[in-house]
Specification:
heterodimer, A: 314 residues, alpha/beta, Rossmann fold, Alpha-Beta Plaits, six-stranded mixed β-sheet, 13 strands, B: 277 residues, mainly alpha, 13 helices, 73% helix, globular
């Protein structure tokens, strides 16, 4: 369980996180979604005790991160920016991390196996590809076998194979009953794994809800797609219900203002054959754009280095 | 792909639970220190410099002994030559001392370190502790080897000292102590500056450049300031011969040197706790 209460973080006069509050519930995958520069990484660093908030508090399992006696056993993290000495081998990196908690070497071997780095574990991490670096980051996060895992943009910059690997890993973490808090700027990536979503823009909370609710909201008024050989008759029947009907091809209609259930019932009552009856849903990307459209700091036409600075300030 | 294959368990049957203690963090820093190639090379450089420079200089001096001016022969001090490798070793120890911590900042490793040890200060104490212990042991051995080898070499012209002679033992142990505290100072500077180039530049400025600048001041001012400069204060424990008559006592000077290291260390510790990683 992670709690963020009224957290604000300022860098000079730029506000990276603005009075943000939310709870990451135990046992499920929660997505942390927002455009680049929305304050996701900063919030995660604050949760992990790396950055101090200007005001507000965060707790992990009821305690401030700094007060955890064995943080690696409570919460494992992989940050977007690499957090590994490039001159050290993967094995020695994990060993040094394990030793801070007295975690045995056998667990180091175990996590190396788990992420599939056995062949290169004794090589310098500086020579690792992005995908190997991510795997090492995941291994560090799982080292203490924590019940909670925080991953900052785990799929960023990975090739399709790497993305599939991350996706499967998230599924297995969830299957183990772990709490997963995962940031991304890609809605589609989230929809595959996250049950709950926390959406931020410009450091502010935009939504704290489920994936299906966000899609439902965005789909509101999107209408129902109907294909029937008896379009004329159905149109007359539905017109009485006061709906908006827009016809496409001869036997196709888009109906707004009535649920698909009700349309089906009306058609059945009049013994009208339906070939298709599909409630339209907004795509996840549409939903995301609708939510965050106003809060994207810099649109494509504007070159703004401060957005980059914000992502990794200090 | 079957679900059995993809939902590989990420946990262990009976996970071992540990906790963060200063002893655990020391063990971790020991691993960190020795698992970097740059550390091993720097320490080797320091050992070679400290162990061999004095021997080489003594050998050359003895070879040319009959050609040396009388004054040079009179002022030849086999203790100074025996421990003199530190003039070179101090650079290797200083640079390594800075890099022990700035290497973590430049690579991002510091975030892993602080996530594992959120109180942070145990990391600093462990780094200082491990690096000091390693430096002291290696430098004491190298200095002793150099000291006894030099005495053996200079016996041919009967200018040798025994370890029991005045100042000899103090100079040998003192040199190892000086280099150790120099390493602590360097690591503290590194923790304060958090950047390798900046840290090394500051280290070189304080220790090696500052004396050159004060030398430009009027002699009366320089004489009162100079003994208190970090390096001049620290040197007193390694020698009993001084070019300038204005100098502190061996242990008094060393205490001043330790005070400098302590002040920078405290500043570094405060910064470490307060600043974002």
């Amino acid at each position: 369980m992670i709690e963020v209460s009224a957290v604000t973080k300022r860098y000079g006069d730029k506000v990276a996180v603005d009075d943000l509050s939310f709870t990451v519930k135990p046992g499920i995958v929660t997505g942390f979604l927002g455009p680049n520069g929305a304050g996701k990484s900063t919030t995660m660093r604050i949760i992990l005790g790396l950055d101090a908030p200007t005001s507000g508090t965060t707790t992990v399992n009821g305690k401030a991160y700094r007060d955890l006696a064995a943080p690696l056993h409570e919460i494992g993290a992989m940050l977007e920016a690499r957090a590994i000495h490039t001159g050290r081998s993967a094995y020695n990196h994990l060993l040094a991390m394990a030793q801070t908690h007295g975690i045995p070497r056998t667990r180091v071997d175990e996590v190396i196996d788990l992420v599939g780095l056995s062949a290169v574990a004794r090589k310098r991490a500086g020579g690792f590809s992005l995908g190997m670096g991510q795997r090492l980051g995941i291994a560090s996060a799982l080292l203490g076998d924590p019940a909670t895992v925080i991953l900052d943009e785990p799929a960023n910059g990975l090739d399709p194979e790497g993305i599939l690997w991350i996706r499967n890993l998230l599924k297995s973490l969830a299957a183990d009953g772990r709490t997963v808090f995962l940031s991304s700027h890609l809605m589609s990536e989230m929809a595959l794994t996250a049950e709950h979503l926390i959406v931020v823009g410009r450091g502010r909370l935009i939504a704290d809800t489920t994936v299906s609710e966000i899609v439902a909201q965005a789909s509101d008024g999107a209408g129902v797609h109907v294909r029937t050989p008896d379009a004329g008759r159905l149109r007359d029947l539905l017109a009485r219900e006061g709906v908006t009907i827009s016809a496409g091809e001869r036997d196709v209609m888009e109906i707004q203002g009535l649920s698909s259930d009700r349309i089906g019932e009306i058609a059945a009552g009049a013994s009208i054959v339906l070939y298709e009856l599909t409630p339209r849903t907004a795509s996840l990307e549409d939903a995301f754009m609708r939510l965050t459209g106003d809060s994207v700091d810099y649109h494509a036409s504007t070159f703004a280095p401060s957005a980059i600075e914000l992502e990794r300030a200090a | 792909m079957s679900t059995a294959a993809i939902t590989q368990r990420t946990t262990t049957a009976a996970p071992a639970r540990g906790r963060v203690t200063q002893a655990h963090v020391l063990r971790s820093e020991w691993t960190k220190l020795w698992s970097l190639r740059s550390t091993r090379w720097s320490l080797l450089a320091a050992v070679v410099a400290q162990g061999l420079l004095g021997i080489a200089i003594a050998a050359v001096q003895m070879n040319r002994w009959s050609h040396l001016p009388a004054h040079d022969r009179l002022t030849f001090d086999s203790i100074d030559v025996g421990v003199g490798g530190y003039h070179l070793a101090q650079l290797a120890i200083g640079v390594l001392g800075v890099m022990v911590i700035t290497g973590e900042y430049s690579t991002g490793m510091i975030r892993s370190s602080f996530m594992a040890v959120p109180h942070r200060l145990p990391v600093l104490w462990a780094k200082i502790g491990v690096f000091s212990a390693v430096t002291f042991v290696l430098m004491l051995i190298s200095t002793a080897v150099s000291f006894f080898a030099v005495q053996a070499i200079v016996t041919q012209h009967h200018v040798q000292h025994s370890i029991g002679d005045p100042h000899a033992l103090r100079a040998v142990v003192g040199t190892a102590l000086f280099l150790t505290v120099l390493g602590v100072l360097a690591t503290s500077i590194g923790a304060l500056i958090r950047n390798t180039a900046g840290g090394i530049a500051f280290f070189v400025f304080v220790l090696f450049v500052l004396p050159g600048i004060t030398a430009l001041l009027p002699a009366s001012v320089n004489d009162s300031v100079n003994p208190y400069l970090p390096l001049n204060a620290g040197f007193t424990i390694t020698t009993s011969t001084f070019e300038n008559s204005h100098h502190l006592s061996p242990w008094g000077g060393f205490a001043v040197f330790c005070a400098y290291a302590a002040i920078v260390l405290v500043a570094a510790a405060i910064g470490l706790r307060r600043r974002d990683a």
